[in-house]
């Protein structure tokens, strides 16, 4: 274990809230996976999986309240993102389950977390969580899908994301990052604060898995019937992935999971619901994680 180095764009208040952060490394197939951890090792474990082009910081606003609420909070950088290696041949979400399984096993063997284990996955991380627990059902008893794609529902209009890597100046890149955050991640313009911009900018620069395609398929919908874990879902009311179709998803999901829990919508929030509406999201999460 080592003390985690927090991002330099955090304000002193955020750095203080996240004090006590630990950094752990696990390994599978010669690839290193980095985990950040908070809370007492004997507490129930909650693994938080971030979204595409992200890192552990996608969950930044939720970590301290969950730690203070009695959870052992584990937040990995998924392979190919953040500080974790991109394993050889790893191209999409279906390559991640063995890395998550091996990582959790290694942390448990080292006495760094205890059971029971629950998983919450945001967007791409929700897909990863579903595939992980289908392949290794013993690893966790509950899964909460947060804004997860892979349900086979598409919106009529393509989300108008723009490329930024070819742009010559930081100012031009920042303009595109702002556009993309409001096109996909956030609903209210006022939610795009300096923290969101700095966090997103740092994360997309370290995305080394750019050609993933499974989010546009029904891979999660096909996987949910295989899960022995209890499945719940929390979505933002204005999630861009399901614009105009969220009601269809709400009707379909309880019939897909073998052990269904709760469906909850956070009013006024977009896709990145746990950032844009952290307080109502954290109020909803205990219902999704209830026994």
Tell me what you see in this structure:
The protein has about 290 residues and is α/β, with parallel strands linked by helices. It is built from 10 helices and 9 strands. Strands 1-2-3-5-4-6-7-8-9 form a 9-stranded mixed β-sheet, with helices on both faces.
Give the tags.
291 residues, alpha/beta, 19% strand, 10 helices
Q: Output the structural class.
A: alpha/beta
Radius of gyration: 18 Å
Helices and strands, in order, run as: EHEEEHEHEHEHHHEHEHH
Q: What is the share of helical residues? A: 25-40%
Number of helices: 10
The shape, in one word, is globular
Number of strands: 9
Q: Strand order of the main beta sheet, please?
A: 1-2-3-5-4-6-7-8-9
Average pLDDT level = 96
What is the topology?
Layout: E1 2-3, H1 12-17, E2 22-28, E3 31-38, E4 44-49, H2 60-68, E5 72-76, H3 97-109, E6 114-122, H4 124-135, E7 142-146, H5 170-185, H6 194-204, H7 219-223, E8 230-236, H8 246-256, E9 260-266, H9 273-276, H10 278-288
Parallel strand pairs: 4-5, 4-6, 6-7, 7-8, 8-9
Antiparallel strand pairs: 1-2, 2-3, 3-5
Helix pairs in contact: 3-4
What's a concise summary of this model?
By secondary structure, the chain is of the alpha/beta class. The chain has ten helices and nine strands. The chain has helices spanning 12-17, 60-68, 97-109, 124-135, 170-185, 194-204, 219-223, 246-256, 273-276, 278-288, and strands at 2-3, 22-28, 31-38, 44-49, 72-76, 114-122, 142-146, 230-236, 260-266.
């Amino acid at each position: 274990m080592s003390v985690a180095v927090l991002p330099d764009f955090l304000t002193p208040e955020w750095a203080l809230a996240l004090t006590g952060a630990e950094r752990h490394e696990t390994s599978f197939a010669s690839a290193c996976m980095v985990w950040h951890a908070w809370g007492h090792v004997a507490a129930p474990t909650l693994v938080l999986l971030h979204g595409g082009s992200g890192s552990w910081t996608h969950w930044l606003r939720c970590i301290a309240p969950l730690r203070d609420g009695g959870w052992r909070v584990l937040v990995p950088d998924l392979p190919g993102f953040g500080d974790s290696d991109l394993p050889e041949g790893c191209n999409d979400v279906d390559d991640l389950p063995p890395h998550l399984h091996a990582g959790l096993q290694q942390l448990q063997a080292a006495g760094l977390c205890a059971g029971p284990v629950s998983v919450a996955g945001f967007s791409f991380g929700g897909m990863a969580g579903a595939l992980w627990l289908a392949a290794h059902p013993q690893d966790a008893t509950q899964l909460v899908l947060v804004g997860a794609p892979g349900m086979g529902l598409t919106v009529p209009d393509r989300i108008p994301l723009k490329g930024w890597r070819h742009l010559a100046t930081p100012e031009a890149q920042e303009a595109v990052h702002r556009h993309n955050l409001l096109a996909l991640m956030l609903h209210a313009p006022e939610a795009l604060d300096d923290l969101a911009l700095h966090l997103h900018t740092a994360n997309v620069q370290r995305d080394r898995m750019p050609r993933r395609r499974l989010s546009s398929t029904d891979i999660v919908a096909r996987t949910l019937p295989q899960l022995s874990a209890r499945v719940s879902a929390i979505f933002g009311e204005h999630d861009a992935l399901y614009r105009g179709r969220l009601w269809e998803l709400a009707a379909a999901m309880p019939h897909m999971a073998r052990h269904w829990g709760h469906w909850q919508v956070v009013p006024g929030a977009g896709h990145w619901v746990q950032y844009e509406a952290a307080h109502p999201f954290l109020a909803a999460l205990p219902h999704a994680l209830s026994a």
